[in-house]
Design brief:
Strands 3-2-1-4-5-6-11 form a seven-stranded parallel β-sheet, sandwiched between helices. The protein has a two-stranded parallel ribbon with strand order 7-10. Strands 8-13 form a two-stranded parallel ribbon. It is α/β, with parallel strands linked by helices. Helix content is 42%, strand content 15%. The protein contains eleven helices and 13 strands. It has two domains: 208 residues, Rossmann fold; 84 residues, UDP-galactose 4-epimerase, domain 1 (Alpha-Beta Complex), CATH 3.90.25.10.
Length: 339
């Protein structure tokens, strides 16, 4: 396995590089002069097509190299880390769909728990050759059904789905390696964050895509699970900036990345369908078959630690986020690129 090592450019390794966060992080790091290496479950040519489709003109073949890897394949992950010798690793790869985690709990735990262990142990093993700073993508789902809001980094965990349970292990093993071996690793407890690049399997993109289709006469109705829920939703490009900022600090720590605003799903629906001149109540159904076995409580994050130590704050408003997603789906339909 050969990799071109530049003596000048810092090297970053991103797992899950073709996902929403991976594509935005790739753009950010390229802008900052990094050489970017990424892993994906797809074979490299398919991963390249997926990445180029999202980042467009930002693609730089001379500074991007892709590898195929299963997250839980510890030796494959080690081989990649050893070949790249990254200065920074962003562990974003995961099975992150909560609903799917109920259907495929073993696969979820394999990817998220064992996958994180594989990466952080690889980072530990090459520390004498190349010290690595690692970001571990954590989640607000850890808090489950909290007794208090907004939550802080000190709020107890109460995971309520297989995805959250697997990420609780990933969080804890990261802290373990930080304290036991001195690995520089930060857990970013990120609340829901969206963008036009969100996978259509997720409810936010499912809504904006349906709003565009219904307004264009391409779809009649939208079926959702529970509608009486809500989240703290932010804008994905701003959240990857927080990831980078964490790894620039003198010492590693764990941070909540959120907006400290909780919005009901009905508000998301209001804004999305109003953007295309429709009323969602005329075309959205709640289907009990799509409801999860257990739901979380009010997840609302206090980002003051990130603000005070990283100089990070959210900038995009909730309304701006939803309208941007709808506009992007309307434009996709116009160009004939509907997902």
């Amino acid at each position: 396995m050969s990799t071109p090592h530049s003596s000048d450019a810092p090297r970053a390794l991103i797992t899950g590089i073709t996902g929403q966060d991976g594509t935005y992080l790739t753009e950010l790091l390229l802008e900052k002069g990094y050489a970017v290496y990424g892993t994906s479950r797809r074979e490299p040519h398919a991963a390249e097509r997926a990445l180029r489709r999202q980042i467009g003109d930002a693609w730089d073949a001379g500074r991007i190299q892709l590898f195929q890897a299963e997250l839980a394949d510890a030796e494959r992950i080690f081989d990649i880390v050893q070949a790249v010798l990254p200065h920074e690793t962003y562990h974003l790869g995961a099975q992150s769909h909560v609903g799917l985690s109920f259907e495929s709990p073993f696969e979820t735990v394999d990817a998220n728990a064992r996958g994180t262990l594989a990466m952080i142990d690889a980072v530990r093993r090459i520390a004498e050759i190349q010290p690595v700073r690692m970001y571990q993508a954590s989640t607000s789902e850890l808090f489950g059904k909290p007794d208090v809001w907004p939550q802080t980094e000190k709020t107890p965990f109460h995971p309520r789905n297989p995805y959250a349970c697997s990420k609780a292990y990933a969080f804890d093993v990261s802290v373990c390696y930080r304290e036991a071996y001195g690995v520089y690793v930060c857990n970013g407890i990120q609340y829901n964050h969206e963008s036009p690049r969100r996978d259509p399997r997720y409810v936010t993109r499912k809504i904006t895509q349906a709003a565009a289709r219904i307004a264009a006469g391409r779809q009649e109705r939208l079926e959702l699970g529970r509608i009486d829920v809500g989240r703290d939703w932010g804008y994905a490009p701003e959240y990857v900036d927080a990831m980078w900022r964490m790894l620039q600090q003198p010492e590693p720590d764990d941070y909540i990345v959120a907006t400290n605003e909780w919005h009901p799903l009905t508000e998301f629906l209001d804004i999305a369908f109003a953007r295309v001149g429709r009323n969602w109540r005329d075309c959205v159904d709640s289907d009990p078959r799509l409801m999860r076995p257990s739901e979380t409580g009010r997840l609302q994050g206090d980002y003051s630690k990130a603000r005070d130590r990283l100089g990070w704050s959210p900038r995009t408003t909730f309304t701006e986020l939803v309208e941007q997603m709808v506009d992007a789906d309307v434009e996709r339909l116009r160009r004939g690129e509907d997902d």
